[in-house]
Amino acid sequence: MAKHDPDLSLLFHALADPTRRSILTRLAEGPAAVTDLAGPTGLRLPTVMRHLSVLEEAGLIATTKDGRVRTCAIRPEALEPARTWIDEQRALWEARLDRLDAFVTNVMKGGNQ
Fold this sequence. Notes:
Elements: H1 6-15, H2 18-27, E1 32-33, H3 34-41, H4 45-57, E2 61-66, E3 69-74, H5 80-108
Antiparallel strand pairs: 1-3, 2-3
Helix pairs in contact: 1-4
């Protein structure tokens, strides 16, 4: 059975939504106030706040509050577990495909398994 990492699941859940990905893309340019993030989405502020909550729970953003203004900033290091998992999967599948290629090459040459 596959090992399940709850943090990785939170991360992929957060990245699964296009609105959240667009928010992260915007935050890659620099910190932004919640109202600035909400504008381009066309969503109501409570909905955007729920999206931000998911991103914050996954560790992808950090928020600060100064008076009535809540500012969000991206935490790019939080993507490292996803990168590691994807790299592991890539290595696994590349090894499998290399073995399949060697097998097919051998069969095509008329060799034994």
